[in-house]
């Protein structure tokens, strides 16, 4: 009975409107039709609210997101997405077919481990004045690997014709690429997939331009 009551409680997402990793989790919740509460963690204000001792108890890496759900606290967006997929009904975020599931994980890891960390806030703050060139270099390097992979795996979406965790990772990464003035037109498959996904309601409602903590000048 206690576990059932815990599972009935709304998940709480501690995140930041423009964080790729927070956006991934918002997309997953939206695709599954899960209601959740948001607690903003401003990565810039007060020197970075993620660096407080209070937040460190939620996520020892002092990054966003942290998700309180079913009586546990999870960090690392891919782990959160897979937990949501394994515990909630709705469209699958990882395919049933083992080969397609491996492809989804490969694409997701390429983005989440090979591209995004090299241009997240903590890193580019250390880079200083060269942050734009740095970010462009590593996004282009990642997209040069991702484009031929997606040419092989994509149908309507990243892997075949069903939305998956790979798509959840792709859209925030393209958003970051555009922020850093990367010419996404060089990557026609990535560009096509991103345009298709941005028409889907779950990707619209989770967009950084319409979150509770989005600054007024960045709102849609």
UniProtKB/TrEMBL annotation:
UniProt keyword terms in alphabetical order: Cytoplasm, Isomerase, Phenylalanine catabolism, Transferase, Tyrosine catabolism
GO biological process: glutathione metabolic process; L-phenylalanine catabolic process; L-tyrosine catabolic process
Residue stretches making up the GST N-terminal domain: 9-92
Protein location: Cytoplasm
An annotated Gene Ontology molecular function: maleylacetoacetate isomerase activity
Domain of life (superkingdom): Eukaryota
Main localization (coarse): cytoplasm
This enzyme's EC code(s): 2.5.1.18, 5.2.1.2
Cofactor field: glutathione
UniProt cross-references to InterPro entries, sorted A to Z: Glutathione-S-Trfase_C-like (IPR010987), Glutathione-S-Trfase_C_sf (IPR036282), Glutathione_S-Trfase (IPR040079), Glutathione_S-Trfase_N (IPR004045), GST_C (IPR004046), GST_Zeta (IPR005955), GST_Zeta_C (IPR034330), GST_Zeta_N (IPR034333)
Domain called GST C-terminal: residue spans: 97-216
Catalytic reactions on record: 4-maleylacetoacetate = 4-fumarylacetoacetate; RX + glutathione = an S-substituted glutathione + a halide anion + H(+)
Pathway in which this enzyme or protein is active: Amino-acid degradation; L-phenylalanine degradation; acetoacetate and fumarate from L-phenylalanine: step 5/6
GO annotations of cellular component type: mitochondrion
Similarity field: Belongs to the GST superfamily. Zeta family.
PANTHER family: MALEYLACETOACETATE ISOMERASE (PTHR42673:SF4)
Protein's name according to its UniProt entry: Maleylacetoacetate isomerase
Organism field: Seriola lalandi dorsalis
